[in-house]
């Protein structure tokens, strides 16, 4: 039996088809196992679709959604049938595996358990465009079948008239039988036409039911997409506010930086002037010290000289 690692809902991608307009649908993946599961999404037409996220890791007993955006088509496909397909691959990974660690080699079956889910693409027409609606197509088919039945009935009537004209030469009894047969044949043809028309009507009812289901699913997808768009708008507003706050903070830091630079320049100038004053004062101090030293050295000589004069004077007085 094939492994059933992820449960994918729904089993097909349904897009609202409108010319020159993008369409988005969401798919939910549910991990019902007790292991961490890595997934990877592939498509047969990668240029036409944008898948986000296309890889990731789902925790045990958790769910994850990925959105697929179909690029704006320029031409409608024949009979609104799309042959593009998607492949959802999943495998078990150890705990702690991150999204950037998921590679294509993880999904190679070399003794590994790899689950693959294939999804079809279904295109539905918007409710306000009856020209491209599948119901209108079935009605056209039914109308063509009815026209064909009417043409066949006219041909059969023409052939029956010719047969009656050929049998006019028969006896009167045979003419009565021909009239009875002529009356019964239109009734049989009408019954056949009614039976044939019942089948297209049944098909039309089935198509209508399918279209209603698609419309209901599409409404759910549109609601989900609107919610996601609203969330994205809120995130954009929050990011814009955060960017504005960061800009104001940066401006304040720049103003503070300019003020700090001016303060640093002023302090460096004051430091230089203080150093010059200190150098000048140091020179003055050294000069004063040298003068004081000289004054201290000259004072004792004068004292000695004065003492010598006094002693000579007293000597002169004592020895006449």
Structure report:
This protein is an alpha+beta fold and 320 residues long. The chain contains 2 helices and 9 strands; from the N terminus they run βββββββββαα. The protein has helices spanning 134-166, 172-318; strands at 6-9, 12-16, 23-31, 36-43, 49-52, 55-58, 62-70, 85-93, 114-124. Strands 2-9-8-4-6 form a 5-stranded mixed sheet. It has a 4-stranded antiparallel sheet with strand order 1-3-7-5, covered by helices on one side. α1 packs antiparallel against α2 (172-318). It is rod-shaped, with a radius of gyration of 52 Å.
Give a quick summary of the entry.
This protein has helices at 134-166, 172-318; strands at residues 6-9, 12-16, 23-31, 36-43, 49-52, 55-58, 62-70, 85-93, 114-124.
Helices, strands, pairings?
Layout (H helix, E strand, L loop, with lengths): L5 E4 L2 E5 L6 E9 L4 E8 L5 E4 L2 E4 L3 E9 L14 E9 L20 E11 L9 H33 L5 H147 L2
Rg is 52 Å
Query: How would you sum up the major sheet?
Result: 5 strands, mixed
**Helix-strand topology string:** EEEEEEEEEHH
Output the strand order for the largest sheet.
2-9-8-4-6
Structural class computed from helices and strand pairing: alpha+beta
DSSP summary: helix tally:
2
Jot down its keywords.
320 residues; four-stranded antiparallel β-sheet; 2 helices; 9 strands; 56% helix
């Amino acid at each position: 039996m094939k492994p059933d690692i992820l449960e994918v809902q729904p089993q097909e991608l349904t897009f609202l088809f409108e010319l020159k307009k993008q369409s988005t649908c969401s798919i939910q993946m549910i991990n019902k196992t007790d292991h961490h599961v890595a997934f990877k999404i592939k498509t047969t037409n990668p240029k036409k679709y944008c898948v986000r996220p296309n890889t990731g890791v789902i925790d045990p007993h958790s769910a994850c959604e990925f959105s697929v955006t179909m690029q704006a088509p320029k031409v409608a496909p024949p009979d609104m049938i799309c042959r593009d397909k998607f492949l959802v691959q999943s495998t078990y990974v150890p705990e702690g595996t991150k999204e950037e660690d998921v590679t294509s080699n993880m999904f190679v079956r070399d003794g590994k358990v790899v689950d693959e889910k294939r999804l079809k693409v279904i295109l539905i027409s918007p409710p306000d465009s009856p020209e491209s609606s599948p119901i209108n197509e079935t009605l056209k088919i039914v109308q063509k079948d009815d026209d064909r039945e009417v043409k066949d009935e006219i041909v059969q009537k023409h052939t029956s008239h010719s047969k009656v004209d050929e049998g006019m030469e028969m006896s009167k009894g045979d003419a009565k039988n021909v009239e009875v047969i002529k009356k019964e044949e239109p009734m049989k043809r009408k019954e056949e036409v009614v039976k044939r028309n019942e089948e297209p009507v049944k098909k039309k009812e089935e198509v209508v039911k399918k279209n209603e289901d698609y419309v209901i699913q599409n409404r759910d997808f549109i609601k989900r997409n609107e919610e996601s768009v609203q969330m994205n708008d809120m995130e954009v507003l929050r990011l814009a506010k955060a960017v504005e706050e960061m800009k104001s903070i940066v401006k304040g830091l720049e103003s503070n930086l300019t003020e700090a630079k001016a303060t640093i320049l002023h302090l460096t100038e004051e430091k230089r002037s203080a150093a010059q004053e200190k150098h000048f004062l140091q020179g003055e101090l050294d000069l004063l010290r040298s003068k004081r030293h000289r004054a201290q050295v000259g004072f004792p000589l004068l004292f000695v000289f004065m003492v010598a004069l006094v002693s000579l004077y007293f000597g002169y007085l004592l020895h006449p």
